[in-house]
Amino acid sequence: MNKLLRSLISHFALGFQPPASAGADRTPIDAATVTLAEHQWRSIANPLGMAIDYVRGRVVVTQEGAAACHLMVTGESHDVTRNAHLYVQAERESELRFAMMMATNKPF
Fold it and tell me: What is the pTM of this model?
């Protein structure tokens, strides 16, 4: 773990929660795939409503004000349900798919 990551982890953390509501489907309205080199990081302001798919690699995800950070690996994903600043750093070269989501009602 490099110095920057240790600093981020000591100040911020990310808590994951399930999607906003049962009975709702999440539909992407805009998406982008990003490749991060080893130890490269991104800072994301106002991430509420974003979904992140971890296509390949290992990434540490941290969000301001949460209790823990998380190591995400190939095949995992989550919806960001808080609007606190989000930090993503690759442990090794990684590919991520970021999508802005829109909740839609699912018929019963």
Answer: 0.66
